[in-house]
Each structure stands twice: as structure tokens, then as C-alpha cells.
Amino acid sequence: MKITREAHEKLREFLEDYGAGGLVRVSRLVTGGGCCAKLSLGVGLDEERDEEEDLLFTIDGLPVVIGKSLYAAIPGLEIAFDEERGIVVSGKSAVEA
After folding, report:
1. Residue 94 falls within a domain, yes or no?
2. Has residue 93 been placed in a domain?
3. pTM for the full model?
4. How many Å apart are CA 52 and CA 44, to the nearest integer?
């Protein structure tokens, strides 16, 4: 898992401002609805992790949590910052890798 310098700075600022237990969680998000629903990746704040189900990465002091199955399904994860879209999480599906 990689994180760009800009994304690291933004997430660190967010954790300092809003706390919430101090973990950044990468997860699947469902957007839209009905036949237009789609899955994407995003980040949020979390207070704890499930040691059996989650992996914990500490990237330059920033604690990032992701479910083991999601991490296995999407190799090459990268967390970046885009001026227009904010924090962006990307990677390839295991089928593409």
C-alpha cells in the first residue's frame, strides 16, 4: 500500500482535527442506487480494528487499516490527494493484477 505525501498530510490534519480513535480505514463504498449502484474505494476514520479481520499499516506514523479480504482483492492500493476530488483510493482488481 502506498500513500502520496499530499494525501498523508491531508489525512494527518484530518485526524488531528477530528480524532475519532486515530485510525484511517480504507473500505468499499457503494454509491448510487438501483441499477446504477457502483462500488468504489474510500477512506474514513475508525476507532478500532478487528485483529482477526483487519491489517494495520503504519505509513510514516499514519495508521491505516484495511480488511484482509479487500487488501487481497485489490493489490497495488494507492491513497492520493486530488484538488478536485479530495482523497482518492485506487488499485487494480485481483483479476487485473
Report:
1. no
2. no
3. 0.81
4. 20
